[in-house]
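tokens incoming
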């Protein structure tokens, strides 16, 4: 498996952290564009869709670098926010899931 550390700063500086904000419910979907593909995160659950999270975070209580990148981006005010209507939520999710699978 590739080593994925050291990517947090490059993700943040390339504006790879995006917040998809659905209105009026204020539902939030976070995505992080890594080197190879895009991952879906839920900050409330501390969840990320990447393999690193699956293999390391759940067993060892470690955060993957995507979760770290989101927190760093929030801290630095580098979050790119994209607004959607709630009616777009379902098609957004199914497109996202297809991307990831
Ligand atoms: Zn991750």
């Amino acid at each position: 498996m590739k080593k994925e550390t050291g990517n947090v700063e490059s993700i943040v500086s390339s504006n790879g952290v995006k917040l998809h904000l659905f209105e009026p419910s204020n539902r939030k979907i976070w995505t992080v564009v890594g080197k190879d593909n895009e991952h879906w995160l839920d900050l409330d659950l501390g969840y990320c869709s990447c393999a690193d999270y699956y293999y390391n975070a759940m067993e060892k209580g470690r955060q993957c670098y995507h979760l770290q990148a989101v927190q760093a981006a929030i801290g630095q005010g580098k979050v790119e926010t994209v607004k959607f209507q709630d009616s777009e939520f379902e098609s957004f999710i199914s497109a996202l899931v297809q991307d990831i699978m």
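note: Residues 8-100 form one domain.
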